[in-house]
Design goal:
The structure holds two protein chains of two kinds. Chain A is mostly helical. Chain A contains 13 helices and no strands. The longest helix of chain A is centred in the last third of the chain and has 32 residues. Chain A is globular, with a radius of gyration of 25 Å. Chain A starts with a helix and ends with a helix. Chain B is of the alpha/beta class. Chain B folds into two domains: about 230 residues, D-Maltodextrin-Binding Protein, domain 2 (3-Layer(aba) Sandwich), CATH 3.40.190.10; about 100 residues, D-Maltodextrin-Binding Protein, domain 2 (3-Layer(aba) Sandwich). The radius of gyration of chain B is 22 Å and the shape is globular. The chains are: A mainly alpha, B alpha/beta. The interface between A and B is medium-sized, with 35 and 33 residues.
Chain lengths: ~350, ~350
């Protein structure tokens, strides 16, 4: 204990108070921090109201977290029927359990299991969310909140990653037709603002397509997002592909492997490992970009927060709503970047 | 067209009601679709206090939502059979045009160019909106022209800024317009005493007044300096459906004018000697059938949703947190602008 204290003191003297100038800078910074932290802490915690049920209970000068508590269900599930929310909870448990299972390094047949889950889980989750086959149907318009934010991000990601890999390979292809197509696709979708894509996908499509074959509003938004993100992913993967020396694929050919086998077994595993940080980056950007679906009134986490502000019973809770939604986004993105860091380390060890 | 149909219907009714009915009922794909699917698809605002919002339990309410419910009661006999599609400003027209909703009931201002160029029809006015001012009660200002010499907070570059500046310039009154980056900043400045008034639309002001520190000390002027009447919107075509929407609104207003409300509607239906009340509630004539509805359609509306006044008071009026006076949204007999053609 004392050892620690002395080392801390030594650190402070060496790094913070080495010269008079250093000491002044340190003190000024501490003072500024305190000046910011104090009112922030006051608003967030000290003067905030946590208990109660209505706006009238919020008498303090600080935040009114009662609002978040009262609306918590909506922030997480949107307008998903209350008696059906267990389905969303079940999905959350399943996803967490699968992730935990796959994190066990010594698991036998881990690769095969992961591939199997990747095939089985998306339709299973879709079924649990939407219903049918005996489960009451919950239309996508009732989905919302955090659940929807994650749904859009993950499904758009699931569509975008394979498409991105194919596009990146296409861009490297020796066949001019495929290369041109891939380049055109990538450059087109990279050049269009996401908000315009979502808008077009959800508004122009139904006007063109004859009524009756209505593609679900949410599906349109997810596909629109996936197309743009696929273009970004393709560029991230291309970076990985270009980092693999030509010798690798030449050696694979020399061993008698054809193009598909050489690509899947030799080139891609290495390329994806290199591209992983960039791809994570794209995914984090995607997670935050899901909030753009608000423009077509799909109520994701941010949308639900915004809609909640219109309730006269809670009017004026703007700061609370945005601070809450913002911290959830931050937590998710932070968790993602930590998880990707772990993956990278493990990949580097091999 | 409807009136002529009604006269014709009444004339032939005694002889061959069934034949008369078959002749008059123009096909209405929208009505058929609603009856087949069992609910009304209503486009509403994503969230506007008093007009359309969802509460903690996810239930929608507001004056625009009430109208969706009224249409459902008229068509299906159950005000609960509505599904809401929240729409953004950019999205509302395509959502209506592409048939994703049966009607828009979404504080949308009726303008010539919208009617003429968007392929939509407005079916009456359910809220007389207009730009006005919120002032401190103790200032004594009652109407916009009393603000001579006052400082008015607005968001820079907004339509409100221009309308207010023009209005006062035209009347050679001197006001100081104080500009702010955003609406929220402007109203906060007003609350802090930087200005004597803050200007915005009537409905928006009512919602924002709740945010002020001493809500009770501020009054909203009923006189407006712009006319932005709002009402339900349908696609062009399908005349019978348009008539259903239009006359549901008229029915709510007529019910108030005739003194029919959700509490006395059963008694009125059983005992009223007033011919128009009897026709309105389906005791006399077959007005509902003429539109392909059940004859007690307006009875269901009033019973389940209420007349216009009840809906107003519950959502934006004195029975709501917004506490907006009736103002122009009062019957013509009481100094307002609400007026309905007769149920004859």
């Amino acid at each position: 204990m004392t050892n620690r204290v002395t080392s801390l003191l030594r650190f402070a003297r060496r790094r913070l108070f080495a010269t008079p100038l250093d000491a002044v800078i340190t003190l000024v910074c501490c003072w500024a921090l305190a000046r910011i932290a104090e009112p922030l802490l006051r608003w967030l915690v000290i003067d905030a109201t946590f208990r109660g049920a209505t706006r009238a209970d919020c008498t303090g000068a600080g935040a009114c977290w009662v609002f978040i508590r009262a609306r918590f269900g909506q922030f997480v599930y949107g307008f998903y029927p209350i008696d059906q929310r267990w389905r969303v909870d079940l999905v959350a448990v399943l996803v967490i359990a699968c992730t935990a299972l796959l994190a066990v390094k010594r698991l036998p047949h881990r690769g095969a299991l992961a591939a199997g889950l990747a095939v089985v889980m998306p339709p299973l989750v879709l079924f649990l969310f939407y219903g049918g086959f005996g489960l009451p149907v919950v239309e996508t318009r009732d989905w919302g909140g955090l659940m929807l934010t994650l749904f859009i991000a993950i499904y758009a990601g699931l569509l975008a990653v394979p498409l991105g890999i194919v596009l990146a390979l296409g861009r490297q292809s020796r066949l001019p037709a495929i290369r041109t197509l891939a380049v055109m696709f990538i450059e087109f979708w990279r050049g269009v603002p996401i908000i315009a894509v979502i808008f077009l996908a959800s508004l122009i499509l139904p006007l063109i397509v004859p009524s009756g074959i209505g593609v679900d509003r949410l599906a349109r938004a997810v596909i629109g997002l996936a197309l743009v993100v696929a273009a970004y992913m393709a560029e991230a993967v291309r970076g990985g592909l270009q980092a693999i020396p030509k010798g690798q694929s030449e050696a694979a050919t020399a061993l008698g492997l054809r193009y598909p086998a050489a690509t899947v077994l030799i080139v891609l595993p290495q390329a994806l490992r290199i591209a992983l940080p960039a791809m994570t980056n794209e995914f984090i950007a995607l997670l935050k970009n899901t909030s753009l679906v608000l423009i077509v009134s799909i109520l994701d986490l941010l949308g639900v927060a915004q809609a909640a502000l219109a309730d006269p019973a809670w009017v004026g809770m703007t700061l609370e709503a945005y601070v809450f939604a913002g911290s959830i986004y931050w937590l998710l993105c932070f968790a993602l970047s930590r998880a990707s860091l772990r993956l990278e380390r493990r990949a580097a060890l091999r | 067209m409807f009136i002529r149909g009604a006269v014709l219907g009444a004339a032939v009714m005694g002889l061959l009601p069934a034949v008369a009915l078959a002749q008059q009922l123009a096909p209405s794909p929208t009505l058929d679709a609603i009856k087949a699917r069992g609910h009304v698809e209503c486009g509403v605002h994503l969230g506007l206090p008093g007009f359309s919002f969802a509460n903690d339990k996810g239930e929608w309410s507001g004056i625009d939502v009430d109208f969706c419910r009224a249409v459902a009661a008229a068509v299906l006999g159950d005000a609960g059979k509505v599904k809401y599609t929240p729409t953004s400003v950019q999205q509302r027209w395509p959502v209506l045009q592409s048939g994703q909703v049966d009607l828009l009931s979404r504080n949308t201002t009726i303008t010539f160019s919208r009617n003429a160029s968007l392929g939509v029809n407005f079916q009456g006015i359910n809220f007389y909106e207009g730009q006005t001012f919120v002032v401190r009660a103790k200032s004594g200002a009652k109407e916009p022209k009393d603000l001579d010499g006052a400082a008015i907070c607005v968001a820079a570059g907004s339509t409100e800024e221009k309308t207010a500046a023009d209005w006062y310039a035209e009347r050679k009154l001197k006001v100081t317009i104080v500009n702010f980056q955003k609406n929220d900043d402007a109203i906060a400045a007003y609350d802090a005493g930087r200005c004597d008034a803050y200007t915005a639309g009537l409905g928006a002001l009512a919602g924002q007044r709740i945010k002020l520190k001493q809500t009770g000390e501020h009054v909203i002027m009923t006189e407006t300096i712009s006319n932005d009447p709002q009402g339900p919107v349908t696609r062009q075509g399908d005349e019978r459906w348009q008539a259903v929407v239009r006359w549901t609104l008229n029915g709510m207003i007529a019910a108030e004018a005739l003194g029919v409300n959700s509490r006395n509607v059963d008694e009125m239906k059983a005992k009223s000697a007033n011919a128009e009340v009897r026709r309105l509630l389906g005791v006399e004539g077959n007005f509902g059938q003429l539109l392909g509805l059940s004859d007690d359609w307006i009875y269901q509306v009033v019973k389940q949703v209420g007349n216009y006044g009840e809906s107003y008071e519950r959502t934006v009026g004195m029975g709501s947190p917004l506490k907006l006076a009736r103002g122009k949204n009062e019957l013509w007999t009481k100094g307002g602008l609400l007026y309905t053609p007769p149920f004859q």
